[in-house]
Amino acid sequence: MNNELILKGERAKKAARALATLRSDVKNNALFAIADGLVAGTDYLLQNNQIDMKNAEEKGMPEAMRDRLLLTEKRVEDMAEGIRQVAALPDPVGEVLGMTKRPNGLLIGKTRVPLGVIGIIFESRPNVTADAAALCVKAGNAVILRGGSEAIHSNLAIAELMRREGEKAGLPEGAIALVEDTARETAVALMRLNGYIDVLIPRGGAGLINAVVKNATVPVIETGTGNCHIYVEQSADLAMAKNIIINAKTSRPSVCNAAETLLADRAIAERFLPGALSDLAKAGVELRGCAETAAIFPAVKAATEEDWATEYSDYILAVKVTDGIDDAIAHITQYGTKHSEAIVTTDYNKSRKFLAEVDAAAVYVNASTRFTDGYEFGFGAEIGISTQKMHARGPMGLTELTTIKYIIYGDGQIR
Amino acid sequence: MNNELILKGERAKKAARALATLRSDVKNNALFAIADGLVAGTDYLLQNNQIDMKNAEEKGMPEAMRDRLLLTEKRVEDMAEGIRQVAALPDPVGEVLGMTKRPNGLLIGKTRVPLGVIGIIFESRPNVTADAAALCVKAGNAVILRGGSEAIHSNLAIAELMRREGEKAGLPEGAIALVEDTARETAVALMRLNGYIDVLIPRGGAGLINAVVKNATVPVIETGTGNCHIYVEQSADLAMAKNIIINAKTSRPSVCNAAETLLADRAIAERFLPGALSDLAKAGVELRGCAETAAIFPAVKAATEEDWATEYSDYILAVKVTDGIDDAIAHITQYGTKHSEAIVTTDYNKSRKFLAEVDAAAVYVNASTRFTDGYEFGFGAEIGISTQKMHARGPMGLTELTTIKYIIYGDGQIR
Asked: With contact defined as beta carbons under 8 Å apart, do A92 and A396 qualify?
């Protein structure tokens, strides 16, 4: 067993017990103190970040990735502001979700309680440290974070300030922990830390998610992969459909709720595709189409089987002509990742059919898939987007970082 | 990969898509038809059960276990009656759990949908086949069952009748499957059938649960182990306390919600323990106590460290004198399995403290832990009792066999 993890796990378990009954105002004040502490410690954070930046440059990390790693005065202020927003959200813990009176007089209720100890494994962006820790603590959980080696100096500095300011303001010792050892085996050991970790949430690319699913023996909430489709049904308002696919593909192609494939019914393909695809091409999108698409709009590359299954996370879009709604739903069922799927239609029955038959975390009628997001859904925060069916599905806010317990009031009932 | 599992997995996935939108009345009629079919096929079931019974005898299976394996006319009728009760329950699928209107006009709602394909690994009692399959199908899920080799002929016969009658009444092919291969490796392969199984629920002893937690790569709902405590706080009504501990220990010692340890405050130990323990002894309970208990009631064996951590599932009770509520909660935190815990008290503050600080699926004031059960909680059915915190906690009914999806109505919104 890994000594660092056992030690941090023991402390986190103890902290979780104290956090579970900590008053909201104490948690909130601690989060405000942490936010102020990060801003006050900006110089210290930037110095440590510079070590990571220098190492990244020496290792030849690409520009775009180095930008994700970089901390600036503005980014530290944003990080603090994010924590203040979490502090301002309502506390989900302690809510009683109804009680029922049984025939024998027992009063049985459900109350919302923290999960306990949450493990977070994440990649590159150091602001995840602050963000994830704040959400976990607000929902009454202790957190053990494990970031990548490329950001270790930044992450350690952030975690140190958060821990110090948090404990000064009343958080129990061990509520926020960061794993210092960045060896791969330590990440695997964290995935197998049964008895200490109640739930593990990986935040990162497909490689990380797969490694967690394969290796973890603790309960996991899978997040991330989104191979999302926009389906333009033949009754669609075609101007609306064009707006939606351009938005879903180009407003932020790197995120999981961006569209990867456009499906268009044969009946409107000749009217819809030329205008929509040429606008997409003008916006810098590379197009890969089926044979029918190519016949209508020759400036597309031929799509392969692999294209239908790929989350590009880039300015690339697969395009397929479909033979009506059943064909479109069959394609989504075969290639989708159950993240976000949208139909554009003016047909009442088709909208109902799509909502009922498509199996995904979020199913849209006449809107962009880009709305699958905790803030856009009105949760005020987001720890990730679950693509599994157990426990949480879709954007996860504070509520999804809690569980329930049954509380039962009796007067001597026996069975 | 295992061919039988892949084939059954493919069929189950297909069936799950059809089941997800199957009308409640079709599902209910299929369940009634299955119940009638089992009763009509009683002779066939008993013949196959006799093969298992004969094998069990030849292998020297203990009497008590053979009784669990035995099917009789009455037990088949009970099995059918259980299925009819499930058919009569309200269908959880399709319920819309509120919708919110966002500032941009999007209407975002949550609707209850089936989990998809549920795997159930269970031991010995063949009625689990009928019971679990009925619950899964009612909640719109396909199910792949894997029972033990000792009951394989009984299980195959039950599954065959259920499948035949179910399909005749409109269930999709593959909705109910039983794994025929009883090799251990096949069970492990089922635990790793990612892409086919959405949730795996083990039903059985600690050995099975541990094997599943260690080996599974599909999402698991842990069930079962219950090291439950009755804590008699010093202000307790001692007659009530005696009733509760006798009920919690002796009404059915083999089940997971039975009490395993009695904690009694020092202030009432001399008044409470002699009467309670002598009644427990008269009821056939072997007592294992701490030194203080032995000083008060000499007819106890000395409890070891192991006793505090053991789920006896038998007429054995550990007894410990505690130094007030903090000591009792610390003991429960250290040795409990987060299943069911009870305090007997007349003190308002102590009751609130116990409910808040004890981390378990069900926390009781002045009632027996034996009520932790889907039927007693008013769910009308139970697939098991979850002892994990993710997805479901405590007794799991039909609702816990579902998940949600977000449905979003727009009129062209982009982000």
From this structure: no
Q: What is the 3-state secondary structure (H, E, C) of A196-210?
A: CCCEEEEECCHHHHH
CB A241 within 8 A of CB A232: yes
Does the structural domain B3-222+391-409 have CATH classification 3.40.605.10?
yes
Q: Please provide the CATH number assigned to the domain covering A228-371.
A: 3.40.309.10
Which residues of chain B make contact with A194, given a CB cutoff of 8 A?
A: 213
Backbone angles phi, psi at A2, to 5 degrees: -90, 120
Contact A201, A384 (CB under 8 A): yes
Interface of B with A in 391-410 (CB under 8 A): 391, 393-394, 403-410
CB atoms within 10 A of CB B185: 9
Dist CA A57 CA A18 (whole Å): 43
What value of ipTM does the predicted structure carry? 0.93
Nearest to A414 by CA among B319, B316, B239, B371: B371
Question: Where exactly are the structural domains of chain A?
Answer: 3-222+391-409, 228-371
Find residues 40-99 of chain B whose CB sits inside 8 Å of chain A.
none
Continuous segment of H or E residues that includes residue A113: strand A107-114
Would you call A142 an interface residue with chain B, using a CB distance cutoff of 8 Å? no
Give B194-223 pLDDT, tens digit per residue. 999 999 999 988 889 889 988 999 999 988
Q: Which residue on chain B is closest to A368 by alpha carbon?
A: B414
The mean-pLDDT minimum among B161-165, B275-279, B384-388 falls in B384-388
**Whether B257 contacts B369, CB under 8 Å:** yes
